[in-house]
Design a protein that fits this description.
With 448 residues, the protein is α/β, with parallel strands linked by helices. It is built from 15 helices and eleven strands.
């Protein structure tokens, strides 16, 4: 041949160049080129031939290297999609998701005060309410989606991808970290169509407790119709007084659950059994440091089960709290404020003819929580205790009001004398009929 490129059948006479003459070239792309003088090999960096119709020769087109900017962006996007897909798949296949979409179990649900008082057989109704709920399922830890900790397929892929693109590790971590924090309840929550009420045994219930014979660890939970955990809401914690049981007195006679439902507020009710049908104001375990916080944490999980969607627990555990204490329940309220561990989360305190003592604890809480409200409505037989608390607040230069009905504005302190009102009927007849309903209706930021 005369130096020109081989033509036609002349390609068959060009000696082949075998791999052993080139050394280890498994990671490169090569093209043979014939030069008459010394038959050199010309190396072309990472190219692939692109053939055109009707031609035997090849035109070499460069391919972007995988470790270049464009390749790394493609790798970043594909890895992110794969990680999110695997993580969502794990979430969808988790047993808790299946449980959340299952039809809710039939539960006792008093829809009105008339329905609650219509059945005189209190004992049988109490038995029906006393069925315990199944223990709450354990939520999988968020660390299973962390590329630095988890062992899931998504985490393994994330670690391999991070090694290939170390400078993008921070961006990857931010993407993965947002997966468990998605506000699922805002997109999936729906108002409960029918109110749900149940008595459930709690591990963190005030009783049983050392030195006390009371062994009823049940708590009354109520989710009113229309409640939506995806909207601003409030948790009402009700402490009953002497000589009371949850079914006979709190639910039936005082109609606390019915009042919460009738208030039109996006609220849930939590009422623990204190001393069972006895003249005893003991708070039980609520006198321990951090006990109230543990109690509210368990209540959030149990309420989520009652609502029918375990994912509501995170919204419930962060809800503002309004403590309503009647008569001897004042001591449980005082201990929860002083030692409970949730001072900043308590939105307000209401005492229904219940300021019998612990004045310093209530004064300290009022002074240290000026964004919360406090109200004490009382009959003449405990007027002196209310006068004393007014004096303590005046010494601290904290303003208060004496009005015919309590105010719920942030920082307000109100003392409400109700005149010659029956102490026994105070939860249903005080400054107004059904005072809990009247009080909650003033929480306009939580209206349904």
């Amino acid at each position: 041949m005369d130096g020109r490129p081989p033509q036609g059948d002349e390609w068959s006479r060009v000696p082949p160049i075998r791999g052993r003459e080139l050394g280890s070239v498994s990671d490169l792309t090569w093209r043979r080129s014939y030069v008459p003088a010394d038959r050199e090999m010309l190396r072309v960096p990472r190219t692939r031939p692109q053939f055109e119709a009707g031609r035997r020769d090849a035109r070499v087109v460069p391919v972007p290297p995988a470790n270049g900017p464009l390749g790394r962006i493609v790798l970043l996007l594909s890895g992110a999609l794969l990680i999110l897909g695997v993580a969502c798949g794990q979430w969808l296949l988790h047993p808790e998701y299946a449980a959340s979409i299952a039809p809710p179990r039939l539960m006792v649900s008093p829809s009105s005060a008339n329905r609650m008082t219509a059945e005189p057989n209190v004992a049988s109704k109490s038995d029906r309410l006393a069925a315990s709920a199944a223990p709450p399922a354990t939520v999988p830890p968020a660390s299973t989606l962390d590329p630095a900790i988890g062992r899931s397929p998504a985490a393994a892929i994330a670690r391999a991808w991070r090694d290939l693109a170390p400078d993008l590790e921070a961006a990857l971590s931010r993407v993965v970290a947002t997966v468990p924090a998605l506000d699922v309840m805002r997109r999936r929550s729906s108002p409960v169509a029918q109110g749900r009420t149940k008595l459930i045994e709690f591990e963190t219930a005030p009783f049983p407790y050392e030195g006390r014979s009371y062994s009823d660890a049940r708590v009354l939970l109520h989710v009113p119709p229309g409640f939506d955990p995806g909207r601003p809401g409030v948790m009402i914690v009700f402490f009953h007084g002497h000589g009371a049981t949850l079914a006979r007195d709190v639910l039936e006679r005082q109609q606390v659950a019915a009042q919460v439902s009738a208030s039109g507020v996006n609220a849930v009710l939590v009422a623990p059994q204190l001393a069972v049908d006895a003249r005893d104001s003991s708070p039980g375990k609520l006198s321990e440091q951090g006990a109230f916080k543990r109690f509210v944490g368990e209540a959030a999980g149990r309420l989520a089960d009652l609502y029918g969607d375990r994912r509501a627990e995170q919204a419930l555990v962060r809800m503002p709290i309004v403590i309503v204490a009647y008569s001897g329940g004042y001591l449980s309220a005082a201990m929860s404020l002083e030692r409970g561990g949730l001072k900043g989360q308590v939105r307000g305190v209401v005492l229904l003819d219940g300021l019998y003592g612990e004045l310093d604890k209530f004064a300290d809480w009022i002074a240290g929580n000026r964004s919360a409200f406090f109200a004490s409505a009382y009959t003449p037989h405990i007027k002196r205790h209310n006068d004393e608390l007014e004096r303590l607040l005046s010494e601290r230069q904290i303003a208060f009001a004496t009005a015919h009905e309590p105010r719920e504005s942030p920082g307000s302190v109100t003392f409400v004398p109700t005149g010659d009102t029956s102490h026994r009927d105070f939860v249903t007849h005080a400054w107004a009929d059904y005072p809990i309903k009247d009080l909650l209706a003033g929480l306009r930021e939580y209206r349904l």
